[in-house]
Amino acid sequence: MSDDQDVFLQMASEFPVRTGIYTFGLPVFALLQLINGFVHEGSLGYIGLFAVLMVAFSVKLTLYQIAVYRRQKVANW
Asked: How far is CA 37 from CA 17, 49, 56, in A?
């Protein structure tokens, strides 16, 4: 797993905006939706499910971006 972490850190240093949006932006958006639903007395069950799905999507999207980054590194080698 440390190899994934090393590649993630390399990718984050080379593409900080893209990595930040995919890795941290989506979970922050989900958290803001939870707060919004709580403040405005929305359906917390649906909003909670949305938040869980957004975090899962963020994880999968980050793993996909790591795979694409690795392929680009191999292709450019």
From this structure: 28, 12, 20
